Amino acid sequence: MAVPVPDSEEFDAPPSVLIVDDSVVARAVMARAIDGAGRFIVAGAVQDAYAAQAFLAKHRVDVIVLDIEMPGIDGLTALPDLLAASRGARVLIVSSACADGAATTVQALALGAADTLVKPDVGAFAGRFADLLNEKIERLVEPDAVVAPRTPAASIAPGDDFDIVAIGASTGGIHALSLLLRSLPVEFRLPVLITQHLPDSFMPYFAAQVAVLAGRPCEVAEDHARIRPGRILIAPGRAHMRCVSMGDGAAVRLSTMPAPSGCVPSVDPMLESVAETYGARALGVVLSGMGRDGAIGAAALASTGGSVVVQDRASSVIWGMPGAVVAGGIADAILPPDEIGQLIARRRRPVC
Asked: Which of 67, 95, 115, 197 is catalytic?
């Protein structure tokens, strides 16, 4: 049985995990899988959000494994409070609700969950699920792949000008994106391109979520779609989103050519094509994510005089992607997502 352990910061201990699930069987199986891997400590296993709050008031953990469908307060409702109470823990949603539709998954990620995993039926807990559970936890607690010195918090002048904003993100990026978009005023009219690492089936739900957060139209990009003021276009999960000049404006071209990062969609082709099309009049943003996707594209954008802003380490779930840009010495600003939104909103020239 999992029992509370002293805070892991008090001694050199493996990362600690709190399991929150109303099923006794699920708690026992997940605790056994985590303990059996030998890489983490199950600090506690509780049956609901109330017990989780009480546990977190006394103990710090690195990861919270959270179910959604629970009696009393459901996991999605409890998520923001658990994040606040945990003082920096990463939340992994493990729920059968994630299999019912991508809307639940996208909503959880927008509320601040770091990742999700479909919980199988009771009879299918063994084997691959245990491996996936431990892999997900390990990704959330492993040190950032890129360690780089901080540059000044903001070196872009408030009056800097640009005609388009291109945003790339991966793990932890949906929540960061929601904070950024909420910081943009209704009158902000620049076109926005977004490449977020998600499966293709999730993209319509993601676009709907972004439209609500941003208060403006948002669509999954189709080939030849025009890039227009006041419109947000999202890369589909099956292809990269590139932009090309059309003489009287710009349009999207979808590409399935392999990208250096191996990701589909990839941030690099988007930023590289924005650099080719808009040059110095483009702003690229790289948010939380694992790996280096976006670093090549950000370098291309910087080489044409465009501006590059990245999410800071403290607010990132994983600082791999932003950290890679910083390590390349091309980040004009390193800021939390809401401050990135405020910086974007200071753009000088109005768009009709």
From this structure: 197
Q: Is the peptide bond before 265 cis (omega within 30 degrees of 0)?
A: yes
Count of CB atoms within 10 A of residue 248's CB?
7
170 is catalytic: yes
Q: Which of 21, 268, 293, 312 is catalytic?
A: 293
Beta strands in 10-114 (DSSP E): 16-20, 41-46, 63-66, 90-95
Of 16, 86, 170, 255, the active-site residue reads 170
Q: Does the active-site annotation cover 100?
A: no
- Catalytic (active site) residue 303: no
- pLDDT tens by residue, the chain, 352 residues: 444 555 544 556 899 999 999 999 999 999 999 999 899 999 999 999 999 999 999 999 999 999 999 999 999 999 999 999 999 899 999 998 887 667 899 999 999 999 999 998 766 666 789 999 999 999 998 865 444 444 444 455 544 689 999 999 999 999 999 999 999 998 899 999 999 999 999 999 999 999 999 999 999 999 999 999 999 999 999 999 999 999 889 999 999 999 999 999 999 999 999 999 999 999 999 999 999 999 999 999 999 999 999 999 999 999 999 999 999 999 999 999 999 999 999 875 554 4
